Amino acid sequence: MTEQELIDTLLLVLVAGHETTVKLIGNAVHALLTHPEQLELVRAGELSWNDVIEETLRWAPSVANLPLRFAVEDIEIPGGPTIRKGEAILPSFAATGRDPQQHGDTAEQYEARRPSAEHLSFGHGVHRCLGVPLARMEAAVALQALFDRFPDMELALPAESLAPAGGFIVGGLKSIPMRLTKG
């Protein structure tokens, strides 16, 4: 790598790792505040923070879509078209997490007790995110600390009024106004 390529790669890793982890934490907070029965299961020890994180990544991934992939060979889709070598592919992590064939009839619902919250939120194969262990650890520490510190935290606005972050790649909310009272 040239020096500029190295600098650009380091900046990408720093920015990508920060933004996606912030969205993961925000999406998990939103999910738990809008599904209080799930939060109660965590507080009762029936669910772990890891369960919350994996379900959040499936249900509301930090990266919704990831452009700039190209087929390296022809891909025949059963019952569908053939994607030709060199054609652009748009992986939609948000769509795969809501697939009823993969996650059952309740795929649209947030359910941290889901037996299998498999997802592609961190990519796959050679494109798998290098920061997976760090992102999971940061989210687990942050969520536990936040909900321990502010056990009565609640949304300051109705959930349906919260605006998506916008854009094509990032999945999450623009902001999550909350009322915090120290426990």
TrEMBL record:
Keywords: Heme, Iron, Metal-binding, Monooxygenase, Oxidoreductase
Family that this chain belongs to: Belongs to the cytochrome P450 family.
Name of the protein in question: Cytochrome P450
Keyword Heme: yes
Organism classification: Bacteria, Bacillati, Actinomycetota, Actinomycetes, Kitasatosporales
Pfam families: p450
Membrane-spanning parts: none
Gene3D superfamilies (alphabetical): Cytochrome P450
InterPro entries to which the protein is assigned, alphabetical: Cyt_P450, Cyt_P450_B, Cyt_P450_CS, Cyt_P450_sf
